[in-house]
Amino acid sequence: MKTSHEIDYTIYGNEMQFVEVELDPLETVIAEAGAFMMMEEGIEMATIFGDGSSSQKGGVWSKVFSAGKRLLTGESLFMTAFTHQGEGKKKVSFAAPYPGKIIPIDLYEHKGKIICQKDAFLCAAKGVSVGIEFSKKLGRGLFGGEGFIMQKLEGDGLAFLHAGGTIFERQLESGEVLKIDTGCLVAFTQRVDYDIEYIGGIKNAVFGGEGLFYARLRGPGRVWIQSLPFARLAGRVLANASFGGKGEGSVLGGLGDLLGGD
């Protein structure tokens, strides 16, 4: 029997998506602060420590410690819970923070756990635990860059991730290796072995125009990859920004060029 709340959903949009979650009475969905878009009458919003999952049951200090680990990922101590307190079915929606796709993942179908980028989580059914995936290898922590600290989602319910650009899913066979830019890695299933490796070579490091490290993943398991990490988008806009106005050289103009393809 599943421990997470069983929710229904619909994803709207193409490049600027939002997910609409349908709740039965007393069902709850949790979300990152700032993800909320709209909700129908009868749904109540509450700010909670951490994710409110069964893994956080215990004393006050246990909950504080569990929520406090989120600070290591740069996230808030708090999350937001939306509970249907009325009758019938009601809907609440959550929006992606930048252009890209929303990825629905049923944790039950992936043995109860996936590992994802620290800023990829958007929302999930209550009962899904959002924590930190601690690396056993020091190199990942010291040199991983965008891939340094990973989150883990555990449970048997639905979770929703957000990623930039086009999303590509790759099923790795046992022993198959894939090397990915650390920023382009969104998530992977728990049987995938991962590490951070140095690209190597002075010319590559100085003139390559890429990061100094990449993620090395070995199957078996599934990997989700994004074509346009937010850090890359923001860096490109800022690099071409001129703060003198709203022309082609400005931040707004640069963003328009990127999205418009001109």
What does this structure look like?
With 262 residues, the chain is an alpha+beta fold. It has a domain of 158 residues: Mitochondrial biogenesis AIM24 (Double-stranded beta-helix, 4-Layer Sandwich). 16% of the residues lie in helices and 41% in strands. The protein has five helices and 19 strands. It has a six-stranded antiparallel β-sheet with strand order 5-6-3-10-13-8. A six-stranded antiparallel β-sheet has the order 11-12-9-16-19-14, with no helix packed on it. Strands 1-2-7-4 form a four-stranded antiparallel β-sheet, with no helix packed on it. Helix 4 packs across helix 5.
Q: What structural keywords apply?
A:
single chain; 262 residues; alpha+beta; Double-stranded beta-helix; 6-stranded antiparallel β-sheet; 5 helices; globular
